[in-house]
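Hi again,

Forgot to attach this to my earlier email, sorry! This is the prediction with iron/sulfur cluster bound. I've pasted everything inline since the attachment limit keeps bouncing my files.
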Amino acid sequence: MNGTRAIARAAFESVDSLFDRAFTTAWNPMYHLGTLGWFFYWITIVSGIYLFIFFDTGIHQAYESLEYITNVQWYAGGVMRSLHRYASDALIIVMMLHLLCEFVMDRYRGARWFTWFTGVPLLWLVFACGISGYWMVWDVLAQYIAVATTELLDSLGIFGQSIARNFLNPETLSGRFFTLMVFIHIAVPLFMLLVMWIHIQRQRNARVNPPAGLAIGTLGALLVLSFIEPAVSQPPADLGIVPATIDLDWFYLAAYPLLDRLSGMTMWGIAGTGTLLLLLLPVLPPKRRRAAASVDLDNCNGCGRCVDDCPFSAVALQPRTDGSGFSEEAVVSASLCTGCGICAGACPTSTPFRRTSELVPGIDLPDHRIRDLRAATLDVARKLTGPARVIVYGCEHGPALRQLQSKQVAAITLPCIAMLPPAFLDFVITRRHAEGVFLTGCAAGDCHYRLGLRWEEQRLAGERDPYLRARVPRTRIGNFWAGITRRRRLQQELAAFRERLQALPPPEYRKPRPATDTGVAAGTESHG
Ligand code: HEM
Ligand code: SF4
Ligand code: SF4
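Structure tokens for the complex follow:
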């Protein structure tokens, strides 16, 4: 399983880096599959509202009203209809890729099960929307869908009488049943919006809008497609004859041809088992979870930075329970915590300038302590020799760092790169434990813990607390967000960084005052 997933992940990352070059990292659609899903949803809603204004819900008038929209008011209605269809097709594509991507990147198990679990009903809802939409056109495709779907529903044996009988001939066709379909096509998207909202509730700072450039480009592509290949109806439905040829929409209706070969119950069996498997996937097998972050009240002043930085809403502030002078304290919900350590990287007390004996930050990972990170840093630094000594910090989900190590280069792996407090860079460089620090990890734009790369970059750029002090020369910090497929490029970037280090004049740092070695917040600066 792990081998297959690694191959699939490498394949995904190769496509990602290809798209990085084509669209730039910021606009790479592969990093915005979820937000594109929202975007396509809104396009279908807006275009759907327009169509509904001119659509006649009567069974005999539906086809004519759509012909009017498509042919008579071509530039407005026709384009809206095409946008409606192509955005729904695009929704299927990004949703399937999104599902596959989260699975392959292993972002669906452990504390993250909820988001996966709530994604599964979205699959059913999207298909229900699309199928009911095709039905409303009441052309030969709609007729085929109506007959096949009602036969499938009849095979469940839960309806008092056969619904497929409605579609035997024009006389048995019930207008009320058609109205029900229109109602479903409006009610399901509204319910879907609720599920989409629930789906992202555990993601802090969840993005629901793609970047403007990507949104404009995507809308432009859909418009071009709408002009080149406008969505049109097929010949009108006629229950008196069985249509000879029908064009299927393979995004929504790929399973329909199977209905000719398999019984209704077999189809329900396949769909039910598939859904159950998807729902159970987060526990097949369950993820070995790292112990949740824990708070040390003696070192927590309730500043809330850990709350702001936790990507999974696992930390909250609550009224102080220990009678100290501070009004609030951090509290971790163990069931939501993924053990990424980003909170420890955000805590102002996580500074290596404190003595080892005192290095218990306000929040820490029990099996990956900040104190151990300091010890590991000093340990590897002691063994480095030669010019341009570099300590590389990387994350568990990026490339294996062993291959980078040499007499001049040491590497330390963290759960997430944002577990590294900026004060560590200050410590390594200004205390001359190495000439430079190099950071690496997941591919840019695709952090395993969602926000780790973004937070770390903002901290180093001085845009987010705790930020890197101005005294640390930026020329001595390098990074390359490699992912697992760009190992060779990582080696090249590191080699180039070391060459640049060698060309730098010797650094001049102020000698540390002895007092800073014990100062709680030394080495960390804050905007607040
Ligand atoms: C209409 C369809 C869907 C939409 C619009 C959608 C949208 C989103 C969005 C906006 C996010 C948050 C991205 C972020 O800020 O990190 C997300 C996360 C996620 N989605 Fe979906 N999603 C859809 C369907 C699905 C399906 C079908 C599945 C799988 C069964 C799924 C699984 C996940 C998972 C596992 C995450 C969380 C990843 C993490 O913890 O980082 N989604 N989705
Ligand atoms: S960042 Fe540290 S000090 Fe601030 S609330 Fe969280 S644990 Fe407490
Ligand atoms: S380790 Fe910290 S930042 Fe990561 S999920 Fe747990 S509480 Fe949130």
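Residues 515-528 have pLDDT under 50 and may be disordered. The two ends are 47 Å apart (CA to CA).

That should be everything now.

G.
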